[in-house]
Automatic annotation (TrEMBL):
BP GO terms, sorted: L-arginine deiminase pathway
Superkingdom of origin organism: Bacteria
GO molecular function, one term: arginine deiminase activity
Protein name stated in the entry: N-Dimethylarginine dimethylaminohydrolase
Keywords from the named record: Hydrolase
Length: 299
């Protein structure tokens, strides 16, 4: 049986089971702390991923409006949102997830592959130092932070294939002191881990972490790894991925998703999660969704 067909069959089975027992697992939200950057200077003036088209008009005011609504959504859900001041000439600084990974108060900064974004890393480094973080390490290898790193509460899932160097995975393990599992991305549309996978609930009190992911974004070997580690994962479809629906943020119960991700929202509802839909369409013109705009500050 091929890997893709196996995932499809398992997805249908899971849908049936969760629809029959939507309250089988109690979903408990946990308060989070996020770092965000207003898209004051947002535009699309270069191409570093398949979503970007400088010839397509961009409405910066609308981007700010959508970002503000996302920030207010987090605050309404009880989360704390910190902000960093945007810098002229850095239109992608709004995608704060790409600029740092924080676990237990330890910070691993970023090192961008694209020269257009390189200066962002130092602005975030200074923010961490100015806000009381002392254990801050800047990487030697290309590392696009939470764009390619996802913390499950037990292990750090680490993407590679388009942006983050494989060697950065070992660097993350040494710096953050957590075990790392390498995952290989193969579809250039889903160039970061956070547009192909997200953590729905972290491991806690003996309960395993739960994730959602789009299998076709990963190599066959990585698909087998994910199926082994997360047998009860939510299996996403091309429909979910194509609207950047997998670029989502979960607090263990509430899942913030793009408004277009209606199929994924229905699956999550059947699992006992609460989808919270937001419009992030303007920022998607640069390949970003809710998660791209959101760095989690853990500890």
């Amino acid at each position: 049986m091929c890997v893709e067909c196996g995932h499809t069959f398992r997805s249908m089975t899971l849908l049936s089971e969760t629809a029959a027992h939507p309250a089988a697992v109690e979903r408990v939200p946990t308060t989070r702390r996020y770092l965000m950057c207003e898209p004051k200077y947002f535009t699309v003036e270069y191409v570093i991923n398949p979503w970007m088209d400088p010839d397509q008009p961009v409405d910066t005011a609308k981007a700010v409006e959508q970002w503000t609504a996302l920030k207010e959504t987090y605050e309404r859900l009880g989360h704390k949102v910190e902000t960093i001041e945007p810098e002229p000439g850095l239109p992608d600084m709004v995608f704060s997830a790409n600029s740092g990974t924080v676990v237990d108060g330890r910070v691993l900064g970023s090192r961008f592959r694209a020269p257009q974004r390189a200066a962002e890393a130092d602005h975030f480094r200074r923010w961490f130092l100015d806000n009381g973080y002392r254990d801050v390490v800047m990487p030697e290898r290309i590392n696009e932070a939470e764009g390619d790193f996802a913390w499950t509460g037990e292990v750090l899932l680490a993407g590679t294939g388009f942006r983050t160097d494989p060697g950065a995975h070992a660097e993350a393990q040494e710096t953050l002191g957590v075990p790392v599992v390498s995952l290989h991305l193969v579809d250039p549309r889903y160039y970061h881990l956070d547009v192909a996978l997200f953590v729905l609930s972290e491991a806690h009190d003996g309960r395993r972490a739960e994730i959602a992911y789009y299998p076709a974004a990963f190599s066959e070997g990585t698909q087998r790894v994910l199926a082994r580690l997360f047998p009860d994962a939510v299996i996403c479809t091309e429909e979910d991925a194509a609207c950047l629906g997998i670029n989502a943020v979960s607090d263990g119960r509430n899942v913030v998703l793009p408004v277009e991700a209606t199929r994924l929202a229905a699956v999550l509802t059947a699992r006992g999660y609460e989808p919270v839909m937001v419009d992030i369409s303007e920022l998607r013109k640069s390949g970003g969704g809710p998660k791209c705009c959101t760095m989690e500050l853990r500890g």
